[in-house]
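User: My advisor asked me to double-check a structure prediction for Ciliary neurotrophic factor receptor subunit alpha before group meeting. I don't want to rely on an old file, so could you generate it fresh from this sequence?
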Amino acid sequence: MANLVTSLCCVVLAAVVVAYAQRRSQLVARNQYERMGSDVTMQCGSLDNDASVSWKVNGTDVRAQHRLEGPRLILTEVNLGHNGLYSCFQNPHGERRDTIFLHIGISPREPTVTCRSNTYPKGFYCSWHQLYATYIPTTFEVDVQHNQRSLEVQKDSVHKNRCHVRFPEVFSSFPYKVNVTAVNALGKASTMISFEESSIVKPDPPERVTATPIRLNPRRLEVSWHSPATWPDIDNFPLKYFLRYRPLIRDQWQHVELSDSTSHTITDAYAGKEYIIQVAAKDTEIGTWSDWSVAVHATPWIEDPLPITSTTEGDFPTETKTSPIPSSNAPQKAEPPVGRAAKLLTFFSPLLLGMLLLFM
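Assistant: Sure, here is a fresh prediction for Ciliary neurotrophic factor receptor subunit alpha from the sequence you gave:
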């Protein structure tokens, strides 16, 4: 008897577990991806065709243009506004039977693919992107072939749409074939490009460009720079450089090409004019020029103006002290200054006049 009870309990428990699992599977939202502009049908779980259901989207009644056919909701000409969480409820008790997360998007188109080697001769990288948004998750599959064998592809840790490939050999005459396939829930599309090793070599721009005026030389600027840090073997694979410069007051550039040198003296600068300077790099034999470096600004040496001599306190005239103001309110008439001879003549005039009268 005890065994029978135990068996019945196990059967009941198993049934409960199965029912709970089925209900959980119905309540967990499932993803449904549909093409933009199409008519979309959503099925409410596994209900029969004659079941009566109602639908909600994001917790509210469905207001978009639609129709109901038993347990199915049909939306017409869907767009991004139809995205959302749809739930269906079985009438008459309103028990939720299914939940669907609807995603509207488009199938991918052929991706744009470019490949470049800025670490020659170590390897190259390829990058890709979609010209048009798909609005739903899209992944990319990359296959690289060389001399009829597949090469290892390493995804970039920073750029999600970039991968790195090592050169299996240097100076290879066999072309590389890169195929990138865009894949999402609505379809896939591929792009394949083929190239030779030498055609994709392009260094990064030179770094730490500086321009310094030269003392007592109002028409010269000393320019120096460093080769890009990403270029791995500057000794065996040297770079040449292209310098351009112009004064800010003019639009026309002047150019100088340099072989295996990381400095140059500009000798024809306009005195006192600010200059803008940039440098590009290229492998001496293959590939293309890099992008221009970050622009630097510099002005040739300008002669220091003569210092302005400050006037000291002793250079100023001393202040003249005025006499006390007379007590009389009437303006005082100033006497004209007289010399010593005039004062003597004035003193002896009466005496001489008396003697002259005596002898007459």
